[in-house]
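re: ur question from yesterday

yeah so i grabbed the chain u mentioned. its 265 aa long if i counted rite. heres the sequnce exactly as i have it in my notes:
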Amino acid sequence: MARVLHLSDTHFGTEQAPVVEAVLALARELLPEVVVLSGDITQRARADQFAAARAFLTRLGLPTLVIPGNHDIPLFNVAARILNPYGGYRRAIGMALEPVFSNERVLAIGVNTTRPSRHKNGEVSREQIDRVCTQLRQARPEQLRIVVVHQPVRAVVESDTANLLIGRDAAVPAWVDAGADMVLGGHIHLPYVVPLPTNSGRRAWAVQAGTAVSHRVRGTIPNSVNVIEHHVEGGRHHCRVQRWDYDASGGAFVTVDNKVLELSR
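ran it thru and got these structure tokens back, copy pasting raw so excuse formatting
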């Protein structure tokens, strides 16, 4: 069985130490194939915040796929934003802004949807759409196929429509038709799972994560992560997404929701 731990919006610089320890404990318990961090790793792209993020990744000790979010580009350091917007990110996290993780059971493709010229809105280009489609078409039949972006591609609250990824109307149907099973995102600190639009009738899903460790939670929703499990049995694909919320009384993450997803093959 493949298992993916989906974190987002850690916002190091606003992290809560007990919640960080709880995420690490959960990762040690579940031992996922890969830990996906779908952007906003830091709060303000400062060196000390990136150092805290690097220490967290080192302590995880697991394969990771990390992409930048809009908070990982300097906001107040205008010179750095213009001349070297990803310098701090690359020094701490790695040179790749669009990493790919692939093993026998999982294909996860990172897409950098940040733009230094934009404050928070994300965008996907035609070149990125086509690149991801090519990678998806090369997937093996047994792999769970994941695309990772920062900004959401579907909203469930009207006020979040302003935060939707620019270019999604072209990207999402193309990716789903090329074989994507799910698109993972963050940005709005609201966890949910909803179907994705498609041109071919394939079943695919948008999977959003809340903030994993930051005190910048949304409303009454606590810190939250997703656990995605997938296995193939008798030629049939079985997939579920579990939402795990932080329980302050117990100092640990607990399962609060379990969705079984239908995949197309």
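noticed a couple things. The longest helix spans residues 17-30. also The chain has one domain: 2-261.
anyway ttyl
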